[in-house]
Every structure is written in C-alpha cells, then in structure tokens.
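Write out structure tokens for Amidohydrolase.
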Amino acid sequence: MKKLSIFCLLGIGLLAARPALPPAPVKGLKSIKAQALRELQAQYSDYKQVALRIWGFAEVGYKETQSSALLQKTLRDNGFEVQAGVADIPTAFVATYGSGQPVIGVLAEFDALPGLSQQAVPEKKPVAGLDAGHGCGHNLFGTASVAAGIEIKKLLQEGKLRGTIKVYGTPAEEGGSGKVYMVRAGLFNGVDAVVHWHPGNENRAMMNNYLANTSAKFRFHGVASHAAMSPERGRSALDAVEAMDNMVNMMREHVPQETRIHYVITNGGKAPNVVPDYAEVYYYVRHPNRENVKDIFARVVKAAEGAALGTGTTMDYELIGGTHDLLLNETLARALQTNLEQVGGVRYSPEELAFGKQIQASLGFAVPAVETAGGVSPFTTRDGGGSTDVGDVSYVVPTVGLEAATWIPGTPAHSWQAVACSGLEVGTKGMMVAAKTMTLTAIDLFGDPALLAKAKTEFKQDVGSYVYKPLLGDRKPALNYRD
C-alpha cells in the first residue's frame, strides 16, 4: 500500500474540518408566493365550509371529537400522515408531510367556550339546545392553519420547497393548556420554527406580552344538615368557598399591580335549606412573570387552607392548567408583518357592512369604523392581558403569530358578538387573511435560511440559561375540566 504524502493528509484534514455550507436560498420566492395566494383563494369555498361546520359543532376543550376528526380528515385527504391521540389527549394530533430540514410547524386550535351559545345574527340569540359557542373564533383558527399547511405541502410535493411541514392539532387552549402537554411530550423537538395566529378585530403581527397563568379547582367538603332545624350540626362547604374568595379579594391590594385573579363558583350547593357539604370554586392566577404566578398562586392556596380551617371543612385542589408567558421573536414578527401587508385586510360586502354596524351598536362603547378591518395595523409591541398555551411552545422553538380581523372592529373576544361573526363570511374572510399570511411566512422560513438562522439566534439569546419546565407539573391532561 502506498504511503500518502504529508500534503495529501493535510488536504484530507482540511476537507474534514471545513464547516458545512449553509443551505442556499430558494430562488423565485416571489412567484412561489403568488402561486400560493392564488391557490388558497381558489379553495376559499371549501375552507369556509370546514370552518362553519366546526362553528356548528361548538365543542369545548378536550371534547372536540367532531372538530378534530374533520381537520384530520382534511389533512389526510391532502396527503398528510396524521398521528392522532398524541400526548395522552384523544383530540390532539400531529399531521406531517415531507422530510428533512427545515421543519416548520403550524398550530391549529378548535375548542369552543361554554356559556356562549349564539346564532349568526346581530342580536343576542342563543342556539336552542346548545350551550357553547366559538367566542374566540377557534373554528376559524384551526381551519386557516390547516389551509396553510396544505398549501405548503403542495409546494413541497412540487419540489419548489424542501423540508417538512407539521400541522399541530392543539385542543383545549381555553384553560386546558393542551399545548403544554404536547410540548412536554417532546412533540416540538427538532422543529425549527412555529407559525400561529388568532382571530381578532384587527390585522397585526402579534407582538404583545401574554401573561403566565396557573389555574386550579378548589374543592371543599363539609357536613350536610337541615339549615333551619339543625344548622349547628352542619359545616358549610359554601361558607368555605366564600371565605376563600373574601381573603383572595383582600389579597388583591397586596400583589403586584399587573396581577390578574379571576374565579367562578362552579358548585355552591343544591338547595338553600340544606347546608352544602360540597362546594367548588375555579381560579385563574395571571402575571407577566411566571415566577410571580407561582408565588401568588401559593398564597391563594394558603387562603383556601385558612378558609377550610375557619369553617370546619376540608379542602383539596386540582391543578387544571398552567402556561408560560409568550416569548416574542421580533425577527420573525417583522417578516410576518411584511407578508401581512402584502395580503392586506378584509373587504366587506354592503350586507356585511350593515351587519357590522348592527354589531357595533350592540356593544355600547366607542369603536373604530367598520371599514378599518381593511387595513393593517403598524408594527408595534403591546402589553397583553390574556394568556395562551402558545407561550410554552415559544420557550422551546422560535414562534411567531398574527391577529386577523375575523370580527367586526371593536368586537371583544369571548362575547356573543364574536360568536356571531365567527359563523359568517365576516369571519371566514378574515380567516383567509390569516391562512395567506401564515403560508407566505412559512415560505420565507423554508426558502430563506438566513431569516431562520437569525430568528434562532434571537431565540437562544432571549431564552438564555432558562430550562423549560411546565407550570402544571407532571399531571396528566385534565380531560374533564369542562365537566
């Protein structure tokens, strides 16, 4: 065997040590985007019908059997491989197409809210026999995300893009923390970036700081007795709930001012003349900082313990949900803003304008003009008062989202007015703004390696040394939290 010269050996060593070249950007992104916009609009009627069917199902968190099945079928029919029942959640799924890097995820929600039954009309009018309604527009959310995923799949199939697209079916965002369990199960491992959106009353890149959140149901157990003949023998679980609520309400003066605490009494007894031996109250604790949420929630638990001690009852509690604050990625948000401005806002028909004015008249406060849904809000960072389990996703992978005007401008979320808009073309037109914007942003992520690299650098800097840990601990999904 011949000996290799020192120069050959050095050459081999240099080749081995040379770093891999970054992927080249995809050429012709402008024409690829134009194709995607045309094809999405061509499928509008089909996606509208999917969204309106889910609106009619109006299934609450972890009970979204029909809604999840419809979205899964739509994805399977379009060539996706669907893994259902992931993370111990029957209605959760991951739909995948393609192979290799980059891996881009799209989030899809589809749960409704209890107590918001509403017909698609501009006056308050519940649907007979139905309790829930899509007051947060998740019938639109899930459908737009599926539409974006399918359009990216077509481009991968045609060889115009390379990589993997994943559509995540994420149940029970409304208090059930569905995405947290999916993150905990490792379903976002190896994903390079995630795109999402949310229905709203304007069009904008989502650059607002959502609050970390912990929720729990506190259950008190007392002794039943006749409330008139032998009240001294009873120990009222309802008294314990009210005592807890009073202490927490006094605590509001002594917590950071950004704190938000809400509760509803879900069970207060059955009859006034029976001392309630069981009562339950459902609490949310929110703050921009997750460590503050932990501290404040611990004080709420102490209030519950004190209430039980003072009323002669016993108490246990079940942690229902827990979500991180939302980690913003300005690099991705600015790219999304550019795409949103290209797509533009919503154009209403004369009938929809008339509907919108009726909706606004029912609100009772000053609102922007109906026509403002046709514009795009300037790029800016805002404070946010809500919470979302997208926050947990944002701490494990670079994440970006948008709000699209699916409701008449001025319409608040979680209202009968939002439900009505979500069941009409007022909603589905805005849904397509989101589908198109997410698709264009995903095309950038597949086609522009420098954008993805910059977003990852920002993500790593923002996360720093923090090691993600779910706020809800190791509990299993609270599949019956809406019961």
